[in-house]
Design a protein that fits this description.
This protein is an alpha/beta fold and 443 residues long. Helix content is 40%, strand content 13%. The strands form three sheets. Strands 1-9-8-5-4-2-3-14 form an eight-stranded mixed β-sheet, sandwiched between helices. Strands 10-12-15-13 form a four-stranded antiparallel β-sheet. Strands 7-6-11 form a three-stranded antiparallel β-sheet, with no helix packed on it. Helix 9 (189-199) links the parallel strand 4 (174-177) and strand 5. The longest helix is centred in the last third of the chain and has 19 residues, at 311-329.
Length: 443
């Protein structure tokens, strides 16, 4: 007897009502304080200096819970129709031809690179230029497919890869550029695409933190040969864990779908032709590529199809928060550097970064410690300068230039959260904490 058989219709309806009730009971309070209505648990009145402002909160609501429950009750919980539906929605949102969902953004990076390797577009020892300031799983997958990550410096205003540094790093072994739209801030894609065109290089966008960010009215992830996204718990929208590979080429998508699922041919558009080539192998278990198990679950697909319609609202909320902090903290510009949205771009504000200038009468740690004591959770800018991470001792890589800006960000920058749970009261409290801190230094 299945769980659905055991569960009477009456109990199922009661459970549905409980799901709605437990999550929606706080919506009125959330809207009152200009928060997005999410599943932000156990809302309580905000007390400045005491209530914690976390780096992230859950962004899902009752629709996701019920859609996931539907999958659980159906008995089909691995990669299936709901994953396919989310892939279609994401493809339409970005205006790209192909979208392949996987179990994480890290897997998306590895899958994209592995597919390029399987296509012969990357080979052992080829170099891939990427920024020194990024998350670890931008860099590690490059080495994991046998290529060589080449770390270059970033721009101090955007924290993104410097086109000039890319140009200086190109050698006869360079095959690709892998820019990262760090913290939702779009890279300067014009110069990067021109460099790639001039040298015949692939462009692989790591857009894992940049859902809905735009460069010249193009959504990031739609500008390159292949791109990746993450739907981890802390991102603009979440499938708990999850990621996506997007691109234009059917061949690349076919190989991604194969490598995603052990390397078999079941999900490939060429499966019938391949089956004819190997008539003595059961086509259900015909393995064409050396693959992984990167498949997402239907639970993740269920979350995605209800998260995506909320994305633009989440981005707008983050942009409003960021604009407020930019205005209110501008008077401290002599000591802290703030990011700005550049003309021709839409910053998606994954978080709100702060860089402490070298002439400040305090350190980055002084400011972080003060904010943490007030309940504002902070963290470094991703993995900081990847070149100084001890794991790099075990990876064949190359560093070009002194990475001066990357190291400065590593030593002097941090970010605090910017999400649906930060409304008028919280964002004003953060500004007041900055005023209190600067007052102690005579500011």
């Amino acid at each position: 007897m299945t769980l659905l058989d055991k569960m009477s219709r009456e109990h199922a309806l009661d459970f549905r009502e409980q799901c709605w009730g437990s999550i929606s009971s706080n919506v009125g309070a959330l809207l009152k304080h200009n928060r997005q209505p999410t599943s932000y648990p156990n809302y309580k009145p905000f007390i400045p200096g005491e209530t914690k402002i976390p780096l992230n909160i859950p962004t899902y609501g009752p629709e996701e819970v019920l859609e996931a429950l539907d999958s659980l009750l159906s008995g089909w919980v691995t990669c299936g129709k709901k994953v396919e539906r989310f892939e279609k929605l994401w493809r339409e949102y970005l205006d790209v031809h192909q979208a392949i969902m996987v179990n994480s953004g890290s897997s998306a990076n590895l899958l994209a690179l592995a597919a390029l390797r399987a296509m012969g577009k990357l080979q052992e020892g080829d170099e891939v230029i990427t920024p020194a300031v990024t998350w670890a799983t931008t860099v590690f997958p490059i080495a994991q497919v046998g290529a060589v990550p080449v770390l270059v410096d970033v721009d101090l205003d955007t924290y993104n890869i410097s086109p000039e540094a890319v140009e200086r790093a190109i050698t006869s072994r360079t095959k690709a550029i892998m820019p990262v739209h760090l913290l939702g801030n779009p890279c300067e894609m014009g110069p990067l695409l021109q460099i790639a065109s001039n040298h015949g290089l692939l462009v692989i966008e790591d857009a894992c933190e940049a859902h809905g960010a735009e460069w010249r009215d193009y959504k990031v992830g739609s500008l390159s040969d292949v791109a990746t996204f993450s739907f981890f718990f802390s991102h603009h929208i979440s499938t708990i864990e999850g990621g996506m590979v997007v691109g234009a080429l059917t061949e690349l998508a076919d190989i991604c779908r194969s490598i995603r699922s052990h390397g078999w041919i079941r999900d490939m558009s060429t499966r019938e032709r391949t089956t004819r080539e190997y008539p003595n192998i059961d086509p259900r278990f015909l393995f064409l590529h050396a693959g992984y198990n990167f498949r997402p679950t239907e639970i993740q697909g269920a979350f995605g199809i209800h998260q995506l319609p909320r994305l633009e609202g989440f981005i707008q909320h983050r942009r409003e928060n960021a604009a407020y902090w930019g205005r209110e903290l501008a008077e401290f510009g002599a000591y802290i550097q703030l990011q700005e949205e550049r003309a021709g771009t839409r910053h998606a504000w994954f978080a709100y970064p702060i860089l402490v200038r070298h002439n400040a009468p305090f350190t980055r740690n002084d400011l972080q410690d003060f904010l943490e004591a007030k309940g504002v959770e902070t963290r470094p800018i991703e993995a900081g300068n990847m070149a100084v991470q001890p794991a790099m001792k075990h990876i064949n890589h190359r560093v070009v230039g002194s990475l001066t800006n990357a190291q400065y960000i590593h030593d002097h920058a941090f970010f605090f959260g910017n999400h649906a749970g930060i409304g008028l009261i919280e964002r004003e409290a953060i500004v007041n904490y900055f005023y209190e801190f600067f007052k102690s230094f005579g500011g």
